[in-house]
Amino acid sequence: MGLFSRGKSKDRPDADAVDTDLTDDGLDRGDQDDVASAYDDADAPAGRDASTGPLDRSEVDDDSDYLNLGAIWLRGQQGMELRLEVNEQEQQITGVTAVLGESAVQLQAFAAPRTEGVWIDIRNEIAASIVDAGGTAEVLTGEFGEELLTRMPQADPEGRTVFMPARFVGVDGPRWFLRAVVSGRAAIEPAAAEGVHEVIRTAVIDRGEEAMPPRELLPLRLPDADGAAQADAGDGTDGGPDLNPFERGPEITEVR
Question: What confidence tens digit (pLDDT) does each residue in 118-129 have?
Fold first, then answer.
């Protein structure tokens, strides 16, 4: 099978389908707004090491090497292809996937409170969802702290059930949370993971100043004309990044 499939089934979760909507935490919208505003003057949660990334927008002085996709900025690598996941009904970009050879990493950024991280709770929710669907989930310690190694049941072209590996990485930042889903060879082979780890390390999250409830997806957008031209300029023959920011990725199906 390839790295991605399109026809996602709600009872067959995969790296692109699990817990896309992270706002289902028992709070109504009004309660979430109150919680978000209560953290405006608080300190950032512990756990993220700014020296190893990912980075907050305030920590980046020179953004000339980045492709600006709104809430997430990415730095190009040789041979890297970008895919944007789109919710057709709402015409909203819900995630960006960087493909490097036989590996890929999907990135999504969410609003979060300043004083406490959300990764532990989200990790437990993802694990429960996968186990309920017949998969497996194991907490391991990786480069970015505790992550979730999963094997999710999917049907192969012959209709047989196979278990596809994926690693869920979570990083709690100042008023934001980044979720990265590593698939392909990098999910299980450390030697193949450096490229996707570099995508996570160098990613920049632009949280913005707007008050948002915790776990709400931070908005992504297409790059402007200048950014797209800069990305398309590298064709892999001159050492520049080989990016295709306008290729649409797989549709995302929410699993609740």
Answer: 999 999 999 999
Higher per-residue confidence, 53 vs 70:
70
Asked if 103 contacts 97 with a C-beta cutoff of 8 angstroms, the reply is no
pTM for the model stands at 0.73
Cβ(244)–Cβ(99) below 8 Å = no
CA distance 136 to 141: 17
In single-letter form, the type of residue at position 143 comes to E
CA 243 – CA 96 distance, rounded (Å): 12
**Considering all CA atoms of the chain, what is the largest pairwise distance in Å, rounded to the nearest integer?**
55
Closest CA to 137 of 105, 165, 108, 107: 165
CB atoms within 10 A of CB 115: 14
Instruction: Characterise 151 by phi-psi region: left (phi > 0), alpha (psi -120 to 50), beta (else).
Output: beta
